[in-house]
Amino acid sequence: MNVPEVEVRAVPGDAFLLDVREPEEWQAGHAPAAAHIPLMQLPQRLDEVPTDVPVYVICRSGHRSAHATAWLNRNGRDATNVEGGMQAWAAAGREMTAENGGEPYVA
């Protein structure tokens, strides 16, 4: 699959970041400003994804988000996959938060 990708350090701080992981993964740890739409819900929730700004798509390792990126681009969005996903995000020391108030981690 050939989709546009960007390294985690190159994702702008004010980017529209779309996390497509499952709810339990999201709750364990995510980027504070990210929007959350699990991959399987994306077709039904497409209207929640903006058309007027670039969309950076992230999952755990980059595989699911690559599929979401390709689909979003076919459906009128300007989407880019975040290479390495939340594993790379955490390794790069980018800010994370957890829903339970505990220490965030990549599930």
TrEMBL record:
Keywords: Transferase
Rhodanese domain: residues covered: 11-98
Transferase recorded as keyword: yes
Gene3D superfamilies cross-referenced by the UniProt entry: Rhodanese-like domain (3.40.250.10)
GO terms, molecular function: transferase activity
Keyword RNA-binding annotated: no
Protein name (record): Rhodanese-related sulfurtransferase
SUPFAM superfamilies for the chain: Rhodanese/Cell cycle control phosphatase
Highest taxon of the lineage: Bacteria
Classification via Pfam families: Rhodanese
